[in-house]
Amino acid sequence: MTSTVVLLLLIIVVGTYFQTATGFGLGIIVTGATTAFGLADLNFIAAVVSLITLVNCAFSLPGCLKQLDWRAMCAAGIAVCPGVIIGVVLLAYLSDFATNILQILLGIMIIISGVSSMLSAKNREHQSRSHDASFFVSGLASGFTGGLFGIAGPPLVFHFYRQPFSIVTIRNMLLMLFACICAIRSGYLAFYGLLTDEILILSVFAIPLVSVTTLLVRRFPPALSPQHMRYVVFTLLILIGGHLLISGLWSLL
Q1: What contacts 179, CB < 8 A, 6 or more positions away?
Q2: What pLDDT shows up at residue 23?
Q3: Is there a contact between 103 and 251 (Cβ–Cβ < 8 Å)?
């Protein structure tokens, strides 16, 4: 096993830890860090992230399906499919000639993710629930970013954390929708024969690590409060996103 693969697996473990503890972070951290360190191209790591996120969600969700707002889930879920397809097609198009543009866009997306994780940190329990159309729009946007970068979090995270839902409900709804987005993305790639042996091999190595990490975090949750965990995620995302943005602009200029 090469040092590159070991480093990739270590990044996946870190991303899984934050995903299980907060409900988001796996795709953002793994895709961002891998691209920032030049360990793999975006097409490759986004496909791996989709597969391992399915495993993470499978271990995180059992017994939690009753703690969902199904109206919001359906409104967002209907929209994710077309969003994912549009994102995957655009990624394939841009990857051929605009890698620096993709890196800049990825950096901006990760910075937005970090900022939104802080702005949406306070659950607005005194506010009324948003209209179903807003969940549809956030689902479409997250499907698009999930298809393009393998990062489905920002639109849904920002919108859901501003609803009068409990933190547990928000976490479970995010995991369920991420699982849907990743299943659609992986199914699309499989249908067109784009899940290469390299993608599958790394995923096979990563799946036991994702499974064990997820179970351990559920059994022994982090000592930090949710607010402090968000500060940690925020700092990490700003560092990764800033590096991608600056290096992408430098290469482009």
Answers
A1: 53, 54, 57, 58, 61
A2: 64
A3: yes
Angle at 126 between CA 133 and CA 129, to 5 degrees: 15
11-49 pLDDT per residue, tens? 999 888 887 777 667 788 888 889 888 888 888 998 998
**Torsion angle of C-alpha atoms 106, 212, 227, 71, degrees rounded to 10:** 80
Measured from the Cβ of residue 191, the count of other Cβ atoms closer than 10 Å reads 9
pTM of the model: 0.83
**How far apart, in whole angstroms, are the C-alpha atoms of residue 239 and residue 114?**
10
pLDDT in tens, 49-60: 888 888 777 777
